[in-house]
Design a protein that fits this description.
It is a single chain. The protein contains 6 helices and no strands. It has one domain: Recoverin, domain 1 (Orthogonal Bundle), CATH 1.10.238. The termini are far apart. The chain is an all-alpha fold. Keywords: Calcium. GO terms for molecular function: calcium ion binding. Residues 81-116 form the EF-hand domain. This is EF-hand domain-containing protein.
């Protein structure tokens, strides 16, 4: 997902929130359908790099707040993300309890939070397995 798509989605979410609704379109299945499994992971990794604290190499509550304000346009004038909200978001995906999101934790969280992505999970799994077979050399004959 590029910055323009993130801003567009974020603006739609802000508009829904300001009108009393919390609904937004789940774009993860659309992206996965267009990009395939490998392309989706590439985009998620790019999103991780946008949000991560470069010194720590992980998404912290502070790096998430800073990114939300600067890159995503969710500054204090628009109600900004509070420290508590950022910490809760990090806790949601923090599987190892270190207080930050690694790249893999972020990718798992993003997929897990997409209710529509599991509709085509079997097809994506088959695609990923097929791609892996194409990349891997056949085993040597004994």
């Amino acid at each position: 997902m590029n910055q323009q798509q993130i801003r567009s989605t974020t603006a739609e979410q802000q508009e829904a929130a300001s009108t009393g609704g919390e609904e937004y379109e789940d774009l993860m299945p659309v992206m996965a359908g267009r990009l395939g499994a490998e392309g989706l992971l590439t985009e998620l990794r790019a999103g991780f790099r946008l949000l991560a604290d470069p010194a720590r190499g992980a998404i912290t509550a502070e790096s998430l707040r800073r990114s939300a304000a600067s890159m995503l346009g969710l500054g204090s004038a628009g109600g900004g993300m509070t420290a508590e909200e950022a910490a809760a978001m990090v806790r949601e995906g923090d599987q190892d309890g270190d207080g930050a999101l690694s790249e893999s934790e972020f990718c798992v969280l993003m997929v897990r939070l997409s209710p529509g992505i599991m509709d085509d999970a079997e097809a994506w799994l088959e695609e990923a397995i097929a791609e892996e077979f194409l990349r891997s050399p056949p085993p040597a004959a004994a």
